[in-house]
Amino acid sequence: MTSGVDPRVGMASGAASGEVPELDMRNIAKSFANIRALSNVSFSVRRGEIHALMGENGAGKSTLMKILSGAYQADAGGEIRLRGEPVAIDGPLAGRRNGIAIIYQELSLSPNLSVAENIFLGEEKRRFGFIDRKAMEAAAKPLLERLAAPFKASERVANLSIAERQLVEIARALTGHPRILVMDEPTTSLSAREATRLFSIIRQLKSEGIAIVYISHRMAEVYELADRVSVLRDGSLIGTLDKEEITAAALVRMMVGRELSSFYTKEHRHPTEDRKLVLEVEGIGDGHFIKDCSFAVRAGEVVGLAGLVGSGRTELARLIYGADARTNGRIMVDGKECKIETPLQAIDSGVVYLTEDRKALGLFLDMTIRENISMSVLGADALPAGLLNLRAAQQRASDAIRALGIRTLNAAVSVGSLSGGNQQKVLLSRLLETKPRVLLLDEPTRGIDVGAKSQIYQIIDGLARNGAAVVVISSELPEIVGISDRVLVMRDGHIVGEIEAKPGAPITQEAIMDIATNTANVRAA
């Protein structure tokens, strides 16, 4: 299949091979009040298969899996079969009894308990009516050895890294001897090395015959792991691709209904001398890693900052923003030297920074959209006697919701309840309320689906068209190539090269990597 709707939609995908699927969900529908979440979705997974499930936020992936686990009940008319036999999964316990385990994106461990206590939480082993921790540790040991876990069953979970905690979640899932394992965005908080280790474990579980449903928005992971991939859009199954059919173009077209080429539609603007210099960075450093970095950005330019992980991109942006202390150099905005030693001074100078970790460092997840958007301009809403002008804050939030297309019922919704793309728009809205001249955007599309990425690109392009100077840091080379007018390449704390998009000579990923890895000099030698 390369386009359109998969001819297998509406039938069990595994039936095409004559094999009885481990899981066969047929014509699953679900409505909440008058909102249709799923429309007659059919989805199957074979024994010992990794079947990726993709789609934008709100496409229906989580709803489908919650029906599988028993957390939700499907509307009448659908059917779930396990190994060819129809089953009724009327609750999470029934799902677990039928060999179904789900590991959610947000880990659900108790940090104050030990690894063994978390693995057997709710199913504690007892002796004479008391919890038998030694027995649980003994039972947990072979599970941890199976996963090559580098910690003991007696270790407190609070002392473990995110990647190690994920192993605890997997071990807990394995206690029920699952036949079907669902993993929801398992690499969101993992480094590349940790993700590689997780992939090895997933392949091991596959080799043991476990049917794995792998939910992810990261195409590189799907290419590497998936035997098949199914795509949901607006609650409907758009199609299923076999491994040899999986391409970025096909997946994007299925997920958002348009071609991959439409994501990078900006017209590259070439800097000219008559364009005003907005940001000038001259010889700044931190006395340790970042040394003698200089560059300039003109009004209306989008400059990409590329390089391998650890090259110093984020560190440089934080120096410019005043989040970290610089020991030398100077920063000029609109031709005027600025004293920027703190983020507040940066904002006052017209410089804002979008952090790469919006949840931990950017947003107040328990607060509302309105409160988050107004956080940087509270002084503008001050009334006598220390009160806030809530009407002004509400109007500001309503304007931002409309301008950036934030999908929400209203501004009083908690930011933590929004999708990743909408959270990113809220954070961008807060920055824009300060009327910045310079925007430093660090991984602006990390952790969001392809549709939301396209919207973020449009926002970035619009900011540049309105005269702002935009610097974008991204680890995704297609993104850097697609949205940048120029690319600065960093290596070992230095800016070591610059590539400009020119008519007939576009920026290429290969050219960036040559500079980032010093390959060009090696070839020349």
Q: Please, could you describe this protein's structure?
A:
- The protein contains 18 helices and 22 strands.
- It starts with 22 loop residues before the first strand and ends with a helix.
- The chain is globular and about 75 Å long.
- It is of the alpha/beta class and 525 residues long.
- It has helices at 61-69, 92-97, 115-119, 133-146, 162-174, 192-207, 219-225, 248-256, 313-321, 343-348, 358-362, 369-374, 390-404, 420-432, 450-465, 477-483, 509-516, 519-524; strands at residues 23-32, 35-45, 50-54, 79-82, 85-87, 100-103, 126-127, 130-131, 180-184, 211-215, 228-233, 236-242, 277-285, 293-298, 302-306, 328-333, 336-338, 351-354, 438-442, 469-473, 486-491, 494-500.
- It has a domain at 264-350 and 436-524: 3-Layer(aba) Sandwich (Rossmann fold), CATH 3.40.50.300.
- Strands 6-9-10-3-11-12 form a 6-stranded mixed sheet, sandwiched between helices. Strands 18-19-20-15-21-22 form a 6-stranded mixed sheet, sandwiched between helices.
